[in-house]
Amino acid sequence: MFYRMMKFAGTSAYLLLGWLTWLWFQGVLSWEFSLSCLLVSGFWLGVTWLGMRQLFTTYFDLFSRIKVLLPVGIGVSLAGLAVFTTHSIGVLVSSALVLSAWVYIYVLYRQNRKLYMTQGHGPLPKGTWINPAKEALKPGDLILTSGRIATRLRESVGHGEVVVQMEDGSLMAFSSYMERGAVLSPIETLTGKPEDRGHYVAMRLVTPLSEDELAVMAKVVRIMLKENDRWRAEARVTRDKILRYLPLPGFVKDRLKTRFSVTGYDWLGLIIGRRAASHWTCIGACLELYSRLGVKTNHYGTGILGLGTGVLDPIMPVRFLSDPAFKLLADEDKKALAPALAK
């Protein structure tokens, strides 16, 4: 509840500031020009300053970078206008201080950027273990990979899979694909790819799965696969019924079936960030599995205002990099495991 309240307050502040900036642009604010520039810049500075620590921590998220750079651009421009248009000493001094604060934030942003490296299409923390060996993975690990979504969003990772231990002790990867829905694949499909085919990183649970959780993990995954199969069959029946009632030629209906194929993937969840009961996005499937195993993670897909609607709040895999439930495998882990991996 506290998280949602803070998200509501933060998003509301951004929306109000956007509206206030628009009023300034329209020239309808009742304040004198230089004073209005100073006040709008100051309001942006206050919101950015309050969220700066979190924004720097989640630098790998594109939206976090935008939430710093866009206000800096607006704030510096308005504060600069106030400095050069005012005839008041008080406004001049205040504008100079606000301008200095914006420059300070940008300097901190550039320093924070040095803690990250570019991998694929976006940043990752320096020292991240890229493409950890199969032998280094454990049940419950979250594997984040590059892919189409990462490319489109200019992020380092855009797909998620959970490492699952089967009854015979072998490791498999559980996820949901656009083309097939929920799937359980050999772990080698991820770890065996050539480096030029993409990269992946591994997130390890800070609190490892218990023996009881490990014992039921494979069963829970099989239940989820059956639920997904059932939903896919029912959804296809519903789609075909709707198409039969439409007064369209057969070839058009066939094209619609191909265009709107039901694979078991949650296409709506890809946009709004919801987590459906029996069909999921890749990261939605991971979250559902963790939830059924009793693993607590950050809140995802709560909506732009944190009201639980999921609207305008897609669950982006890159955000798991700052989830306190996980630890990103780093080069230090690689060095520690080197003797065991060499055997």
Textual characterization of the structure:
With 343 residues, the chain is α+β, with helices and mostly antiparallel strands. It folds into two domains: 2-114, no CATH class; 125-342, endopeptidase fold (from Nostoc punctiforme) (Alpha-Beta Complex), CATH 3.90.1720. Helices cover 53% and strands 12% of the residues. The strands form two sheets. A six-stranded antiparallel sheet has the order 6-5-4-3-7-8. Strand 5 (171-177) and strand 6 (181-186) form a beta hairpin. The model has no long low-confidence stretch (mean pLDDT 85).
Quick recap of the structure?
The chain is α+β, with helices and mostly antiparallel strands.
The domain tally reads 2
User: In CATH, what is the class of the largest domain?
Assistant: Alpha Beta
Could you tell me the mean pLDDT?
Answer: 85
How many helical stretches? 11
Strand content: 5-15%
Strand order of the largest sheet: 6-5-4-3-7-8
Helix content: 40-55%
Radius of gyration: 24 Å
Q: Overall 3D geometry?
A: globular
Which structural category do the helix and sheet elements fall into?
alpha+beta
